[in-house]
Amino acid sequence: MMAKDDRIIELLDSLDLQRRGWLVVDHWEADTCAIGIARASEPRRLVYVGIFGKEYGRYDYECELPSGPAVTDYVATGRGDGVTCDELLEVLMKHLG
Question: Which residue ranges make up each domain of the chain?
Answer without folding.
Answer: 6-96
